[in-house]
Amino acid sequence: MNDKVISLLCGVIFSLGLVVSGMTNPSKVIGFLSITHNWDASLIFVMGGAILIFAPFFYFLKNKEVSALGIEIELPSKQAVDKKLVIGAALFGVGWGLVGLCPGPSISALTSPGISGFAMFDPIVIIFLFSMAIGILVNKNLLQKTMQNKN
Amino acid sequence: MIGLSVVLYFYTTGRLAGVSGIVENAITKKTYRLSNILFLLGLVLGPLLYCYTKEPLAIAFTLPDHSFTITDSYPLIIIGGLLVGLGTRLSGGCTSGHGICGIGRLSISSLIATVIFVGVAMLTVTILQQFGIYL
Fold first, then answer.
1. Average pLDDT of each block of 10 consecutive residues along chain A (151 residues)?
2. Which residues of B touch A72 (CB under 8 A)?
3. Cβ-count burial of B115 within 10 angstroms (0-12 exposed, 13-18 middle, 19+ buried)?
4. Chain B residues near residue A46 by CB distance under 8 angstroms
5. Whole-angstrom Cα distance, residue B42 to residue B38?
6. Do residues A137 and B28 touch, judged by C-beta distance below 8 A?
7. Which range, of A15-29, B69-83, B100-114, averages the lowest pLDDT?
8. Is the dihedral of CA B31, B117, A40, A43 positive or negative?
9. Nearest to A104 among B74, B96, B98 (CB)
10. What ipTM was estimated for this complex?
C-alpha cells in the first residue's frame, strides 16, 4: 500500500462519512446553522465524533517523526491567534452560511445526486468550486505576498 | 467514518487531512501533488459508491427529509465560493483542518477559528432568514 493508494482510499472513506451524515446536503447544513429557527443540531455529532476518534490517536502518535509508511510527519507550526486567523475564519463563516457548502462536501457534492438533490456535476457546484479555487489563489498569490512585503 | 479517514491518513502519510489545505496544495504545490489529487478524486468517488450500493435506501430516506434547497442564485454561489476559498486559506483551515484535526490536536488557535466560523455562519444564516432567503 503506498501513499497514493492510501490517499485515494482516505478520500473515499471521508466522503462516505460526509454523505451518510448529510454534510453534502446544503439544506441540512443550513438547518444546523439555523439556530434561531428549527435548529437541527445533529451535525455537531459528525464533527464531535470525528474529533473523539482522532484526538486520542493523535495524542499517542504526536511525538513520532515518521509515519507508518516512513514519510516524515508534517505538522503545522503553532499558529498565533492573529488578524489572519480571525478575519479568515469570519470570511469563511460568511461563505459557509451563504451557501451551506464547505470545502470537503463541496467536492463530494459533484457526485451526490439523489442524496443531496444535485444533478450529477451540477453547474452550481462547479461554479462554487471554481470560485473557491479563485479564492484560494487570491489568498496565496496576492494576500500572502502583500503581507510578506509589509513585514 | 470521517474520524477513521483522518486517523488512517495521518497514521500512514503523516499529513493532516484538512481538505482546504489539500486543495490548495493540489493546485499550487508539486510535492505530493498526485496524492493530493487522488484524495480529492476519492471525495468524488465516495458518493458514487454510495449511490450504487445504497441508492434505493438513500432516495427513500434522505430526500423527503431534506428537500433540496441550495440557492440557485449565481451571485450568492460565486461570492460564497470566493469567501470560502479565501477565508479557509487565510485562517489556515476549514471544517476538517481546524474543526477536526485542529481541535483533535488540542490546538487553541483552531478551537478559536472553529468557534468564529461556526458562529459567523450561524449569524449569516440568521440574517439571510430575516430577508426571507432561507426558511
1. 90 92 88 90 92 94 88 84 94 95 93 71 91 96 79 61
2. 14
3. middle
4. 2
5. 6
6. yes
7. B69-83
8. positive
9. B96
10. 0.93
How far apart CA A123 and CA A125 sit, in angstroms, is 5
Q: How much is the pTM?
A: 0.91
For A35-49, B48-62, B121-135, which range has the lowest pLDDT when averaged over its residues?
B48-62
> Residue B56's pLDDT is what?
56
What residue type is B135 in one-letter code?
A: L
**What does the block give as the cell for B112?**
478559536
Place of cell 479564492: A135
d(CA A92, CA A97): 8
d(CA A101, CA A110) in angstroms, rounded, equals 12
Smallest CA-to-CA distance from A7 within B38, B4, B133, B14 is with B38
The answer to whether the Cβ–Cβ distance between B47 and A111 falls below 8 Å is yes
Cβ-defined contact of A136 to B86 (cutoff 8 Å)? yes
Exposure string of A4-38, with b = 16+ CB inside 10 Å and e = fewer, is bebbbbbbbbbbbbbbbbbbbbbbbbbbbbbeeee
Cell of B54: 445504497
**Partner B contacted by A104 (CB < 8 A):** yes
A72: part of which helix (H) or strand (E)? Answer: none
The tens digit of pLDDT for each residue in B30-54 reads: 989 999 999 999 999 998 888 777 6
Which of B8, B13, B63, B67 to mutate against chain A (most A CBs within 10 Å)?
B13
Note whether B84 and A136 are within 8 A (CB). no
Is residue B73 within 8 angstroms of chain A, CB to CB? no
Residue A126 in contact with partner chain B when CB distance is under 8 A: no
Cβ within 8 Å, pair B38-A8: yes
